[in-house]
Batch of 2 targets.
Target 1
Amino acid sequence: MSTYTPRPLGPTLALAGSVGKRADVLVIGLTKSADGPELALADGTVDDSILSEILDGLTLVGATGAAEEITRVPAPGSLPVDSIVAVGLGAADALDAEQIRKSAGAAARSLKGGIGTAATTLSVLDLGAAAEGFALGSYVFHEYKSAKSAPGPDAGPVENVELLVSAPKDKEAKATLERSTAIAKAVATAREFVNTPPSHLFPAEFADRARALGSSAGLKVEVMDEKALEKGGYGGIVGVGKGSSRPPRLVRLSYASKKKGAPKVALVGKGITFDTGGISIKPAASMENMTSDMGGAAAVVATVVLAAELGLPVDVTATVPMAENMPSSTAQRPGDVLTQYGGTTVEVINTDAEGRLILADAIVRACEDEPDYLIDTATLTGAQMVALGNRTPGVMGTDEFRDRVATLSQQVGENGWAMPFPSELRADLDSKVADLANVTNQRWGGMLVAGIYLKEFVSQDVQWAHIDVAGPAYNTSGPWGYTGKGGTGVPVRTMITVIEDIAANG
Ligand code: BES
Ligand code: ZN
Ligand code: MN
């Protein structure tokens, strides 16, 4: 069994009433107006007499306040810091929490290089957003760089962040910071799983790490190995996993809240630790990105742990299938028929449509607990990216809950978008030899078809949302806002916000 203890995944965040003696830089926000940049500050956090000096200096070197623009200038002698980093917030009338989160993230990324402590006034605009943005923008992954190329401790991200607020002892401010710190840690945990290469993160190891995280958060943990899966009739997970020398797992993590009769939420996440496509093998170009094919699993593991840490009055169980999709003489073949958990038979026409096979088993298992709500998330289809691009998750499911999840996702800046299940697509999944085929023979609406496949396995009375994060879980282009290259941690913040909303409103 693993003794996995995660490394610290972000800076230490603390509330402060004024810039402390230890601070090296002060990060301030600048909005953009027709008359030039304007400082976005609340009264009192920085001495009024030096504000115009700071603004003049910034204007002189060309700062405009454009969103996420970074300008660094020497600090006036009366401030205890060496320099000021001004980060653009865009137009003041368009300023929202997500822009503050992104700007804080951009500022944090600019601080890489031996800065011990940064103070910021972005927190007077929105404490939670500033904290999350700073924490997430500071996340870097150098675990597999040796001393030869590792950036070294002096080039690392900022270590401490002082979030300036007018009343640092205020209970509400403390609670906000605690929640944001926990959320940022969960997002970073999901990123860390995604960024860990497939050589090092395979189903048994992933299960061990999930078990370790779950146990230390006080969750009930259950891990089924390949023998238990075979015996239990989990034909989808077994079928996908059998091409690999590294056998599959099914992990269940349960958080039981103290509240009697609390609503029940089931989470399910796709945990393909690497997707070669199997016998229906993928082209070589960009195949390395398939290290991200467990992004859904990473997010649900992080989210159930987070729900426990926040002590939410909701019972949450994550059911997480894990397998490696490999071609070999023991792999399943196109044309094979397997039996999903619960008895549905499936003709596996394309072994690269493996996500739905492992998810269907997990969804049926999750529904045995009779949850009120079920959220599944997966890097399920390339078609998600064709339809919505790299940053917009597709949300499907039962109408009302789907729309609720999409709305909340947009509120937290993860931007999920509701998508339909056109009824005519279902017949395309009919098979001549089994109950269902795992793919259709046409390529249109691929994201929706995958969702329609999953729908076959969701119990009637469960409110269900399926979130396809094929693009959004993994950033293959440059860093932006609080998102670096690699794992993004999407959709952890959507899911925890939905669970909090269920806690508040049922
Ligand atoms: N893991 C992939 C989907 C994917 C593609 C995620 C690109 C992230 C980036 C999934 O298992 C897959 O291969 N889906 C196929 C389905 C098809 C065979 C119906 C796809 O999208 O091509
Ligand atoms: Zn896949
Ligand atoms: Mn695939």
Target 2
Amino acid sequence: MRPDLFEAPDYYNLDDLLTEEHKLIRDAARAWVKRDVSPIIEQAAQDAKFPKSIIPGLAEIGAFGPYIPEQYGGAGLDQISYGLIMQEIERGDSGVRSTASVQSSLVMYPIWKYGSEEQRNKFLPKLASGEFMGSFGLTEPDHGSNPSGMVTNFKDMGDHYLLNGAKLWISNSPFCDVAVVWAKNEEGCIHGLIVERGMEGFSTPETHNKWSLRASATGELIFQDVKVPKENLLPNKSGLGAPLGCLDSARYGIAWGAIGAAMDCYDTALRYAKERIQFGKPIAAFQLQQKKLAEMITEITKAQLLALRLGQLKNEDRATSAQISMAKRNNVDMAIKIAREARQILGGMGITGEYSIMRHMMNLESVITYEGTHDIHLLITGLDITGENAFK
Ligand code: TGC
Ligand code: FAD
């Protein structure tokens, strides 16, 4: 892959709306991606291997639990800082952002919000430092968009719980040390359980042959009569709202992350268009290419404004789930369209691993599906504005 020459577009001077701390945090993440991610990520994706060597760096830039209080090892930052870190990481690769999203919003968040003080102290500092890596098991082979139908279940055996079932499409599963797993009790109520590697009957086979998120490890979580200690049940929230609350936090991070992927595609295409000569001129001088580039920067700017306003609402604890859905849906759709257009601007070169665009484009095919599909988020907006439930 070519040297990383990324320059971030800021067409509406949005930097003026950030604090000095936001900019410092963002710039540190940006510099780390340039130094430690860009040089290795293409090969990792080609090899379909999660580059574990970047785990300490992710911890160092605060990507594991950015908004988790410092007393538990988190960075204690605000929601805009969290968003900016996700934007910068996904500028490098959506799979790396996935690893950080899962660790922060899907593993640390439920332990922090729904866990006991003992669970927080036992797991959060190790997850923040990257000593432990986590995964989040909600999706099942027969229950993706409709997690309320899950069949993974646990029985109260007196001194422990007995867990049975299987989760599919789980980011980080092949190497996770702990998994936050959602399962039904005997009354059919959903609870979160912390399952630890090494528990008998717990296995995490990897899912191979993905054409997307190749630098992120995806797999299954299989539970065959796993004895889970009672102290591993998350005590402070039950019902489907518990996992969906975690998704709100991760979807918010994705709304920012997708902007990073889009900015990288735009920046690459703009530079290429200025340098590539055809018919005696740079292709940037042709109206058709200018239309593509002008529309890209317009859409990126709109997405940046949406994310920043959502971050302000999150900081004030006023962001609704439906607002988060709108931003996740819009910004991922924006990014995937920009990746496709940017790929065309590079012509044949666009399909090679010399440039990041094709990798972003393939990654975004997962991002538009996970954390609620494009359709599901549209239906969430539809329900919110009409009061009519069109899911069922
Ligand atoms: P519904 O009846 O609407 O809701 C059940 C209960 O949950 C509450 N609720 C929420 N709470 C917090 N946050 C939200 N976003 C919430 N949405 C709903 C709701 O108020 C209710 O509470 P209560 O107290 O009344 O019981 O549930 P439903 O079964 O009709 O489903 C609604 C639907 C379809 C929107 C939901 O199931 C959904 O979002 N489906 C999509 C599933 C999904 O996003 N899965 C993601 C899996 S994790 C993942 O993809 C990780 S990828 C990570 C990476 O690598 O980055
Ligand atoms: P389905 O739910 O079967 O949907 C198939 C199609 O039907 C979609 O187009 C969908 O929009 C549409 N559809 C479904 N219901 C409706 C409806 N009511 N109305 C209209 N259309 C509908 N899950 C986890 O729990 N943890 C993870 O870490 C995780 N990581 C993932 C990583 C990757 C790379 C991928 C691809 C997925 C991951 N997922 C994870 C799972 C992800 O959340 C699901 O793939 C997603 O929720 C969709 O479920 P599904 O794939 O079963 O599709």
